[in-house]
Amino acid sequence: MGRTLYDKLWDEHVIRTESDGTALLYIDRHLVHEVTSPQAFEGLRQAHRKVWRISSIVATADHNTPTTGWDLGYDGITDPTSREQVVTLDTNIQACGAAAYFPFMSSRQGIVHVIGPENGAILPGMTVVCGDSHTSTHGALGALAHGIGTSEVEHILATQTLLTKKARNMLIRIDGSLPRGCTAKDLVLAVIGQLGTAGGTGYTVEFAGDAIRALSIEGRMTVCNMAIEAGARAGLVAVDDKTIDYLRDRPMAPGAVQWDQAVSYWRTLHSDPDAQFDTTVALDASQLMPQVTWGTSPEMVLGIDQRVPDPDHEKDAGKRRAIERSLVYMGLQPGQAICGLPVDKVFIGSCTNSRIEDLRQAAAVVKSLGRRVAPNIRLAMVVPGSGLVKAQAEREGLHDVFTAAGFEWRQPGCSMCLAMNADRLMPGERCASTSNRNFEGRQGAGGRTHLVSPAMAAAAAIHGHFVDVRQFV
To answer: What are the pLDDT digits (tens) for 282-341?
Structure first.
């Protein structure tokens, strides 16, 4: 019987499996940031243990770093705990070493899930971990990648292995062409809306089909990034020519003779024709429309021309209570239209949508509308995912498009995605956000988050409310 892509990656990294199914998995790449690593490094020191394989570590500061005030240096990090975590990462990497370190304010610093691929640190066939749930992003490159807890960060630093159990296989096949105005973000939000936030629990998901093949690598990263929001352990896309072309000449990618050998192996990283999946889900991309979340979970999502659900029409008591709670928190009424809903702030960024393709999509909408940010918008901000993305956008003049329209052009970092830094919502503020989670308080206590694509966020900033971006692209 043929093997799935997940089977192949698992089989090539499993060291041993116990009778209860617990396996010891070898880890190739360990991404490290400032939030979940301090306790792990301290644990090693207390146990008098060293890092097992320094060459596996790629590190950066991203969650706590400010997106303004870089002229003040580390003094620009106003929160004492945030500053301590960033400084502690500097100290730990200086003491222990790393294959690559991109410290605060360096030219290649940025969100860990952006700087990894763009530097060629993530390669097809790798096992990749990070103390961050959205590590699933890297599955877009044919790598088995997922988040881990802080205790596991320490264990991997010490042993280069992870204790885990094998997940089941799910295939999400998406055929058809994305309609005008729809992007990878709309596609994955629609998937989560269909599966629910627990639909992928216990599975590693492989995304396949014509619509996935048509996406750029950056679009595939957006899809895999949010696989975790459907409950999946990891997301995967098989290697193809786009994967190989994306990695060519990246700083940490193989070179010369090693490149040809690597490519020969990478081309085997796909599911065999006769591979068996435990579950298969099929979607038609051609039926999609721009998506907007309305509630406090990514599964609470609608097409832009739809209306907020009425809990009285929900027969399931648990779902009815969840709808009622979300409506109260979000300040919405049953049956209210999403199109035309005013917003207070707009955030374009995060590990989901801060790459150059995302910024180009947003800038194209701003340019086509030819107007400034609406007067009711208190803040519209664009935060590149890395220093390299920022530099590329500035070479293309995208920053001029944004700033001329009244957007703030910021320094790279996680920013308002999770409110661990100075960028956050105030209670009651409503935000059109390109991030990945709309939980209560995710972007700030009492803040109300609506997840959308970069194009939809840009259009909302100019109009002051949600609009159907298909009218402007």
So the answer is: 999 999 999 999 999 999 999 999 999 999 999 999 999 999 999 999 999 999 999 999
For 121-155, the pLDDT digits (tens) are: 999 999 999 999 999 999 999 999 999 999 999 99
CA 14 to chain centre: 26
Burial class (CB in 10 A: 0-12, 13-18, 19+), 315: exposed
Helices 356-369 and 217-225: angle between axes, nearest 10 degrees? 100
Cβ(88)–Cβ(331) below 8 Å: no
Cβ neighbour number for residue 255 with a 10 Å cutoff? 13
3-state SS, residue 121: coil
In order of 3, 5, 16, 148, 228, the CA distances from 22 in angstroms are 20, 20, 9, 16, 21
Q: Which amino acid is at 462?
A: I
Q: How far apart are CA 27 and CA 427, in angstroms?
A: 41
Residue 123 exposed, middle or buried by CB count within 10 Å (0-12, 13-18, 19+): buried
Q: Which of 122, 71, 389, 392 is nearest to 250 (CA)?
A: 122
Element (H, E) at 226: none
Q: Are strands 291-293 and 301-303 parallel, antiparallel or unpaired?
A: antiparallel
E-strand stretches of 62-216:
100-102, 127-130, 144-147, 161-165, 168-175, 203-208
Up-side HSE of residue 205: CA atoms within 13 Å toward CB? 35
CA 419/CA 90 separation, integer angstroms: 22
CB 445 within 8 Å of CB 427: yes
